[in-house]
Amino acid sequence: ICCHRPVGRAEARSVALSELKAVRIPDPELALEKYPHQLSGGQIQRALIALALACQPRLLIADEPTTALDVTIQAQIVWLLRRLADEKGLAVVFITHDLGIVSQLCDRVAVMYAGRIVEMGSVEAVIDQPRHPYTAKLLGTVPAVGRGTRDLVSIPGHVPDPGVIPTGCAFHDRCDLATGICTEANPPARTLGKAHLALCHHAVRHQQVTEAP
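Above: the chain's sequence. Below: its structure in token form.
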């Protein structure tokens, strides 16, 4: 805090306590004196969020902040991030593999494959009407409560080596819809609705393949 804000040690301590209170760590004065191994997993995540906010950023990048936490603590961290974003007018880039958390926390989502964005739009558009085959298959791997019974989808093959990305669409060798053009040309970004984009040669005709029968 002293390195990034024009404050002395006493004020820096006051800022630290204020941020620990903001993320609702119990007994923040005691927590401030503890080492990381003396805190629980949830407390560590809260402390890291407090640390990230101490320098008053306008953008917070949260990379897998709920990994290795139990479901109850995950929900608390998601709620905390949402509350802090609203209270502080903070933009949050949330990086995760958990689509359930995406639907709870995010307003917009960008789906990436092999280091490239393949689909982007509102959470409702992308999750309810995926237009890239990878997005649809990814959603198909997740059990859906209240949508009837259906078989879970598996995605054959492997993600390509980052240093040897195939020509054309990087997903073509794992895609059921792939045709010759998919192996030859990078797919263009196609507009499919209000601020909904998919980088797929067949996005216009592609329909959701994960809906219940």
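The first strand starts at residue 59 and ends at 63.
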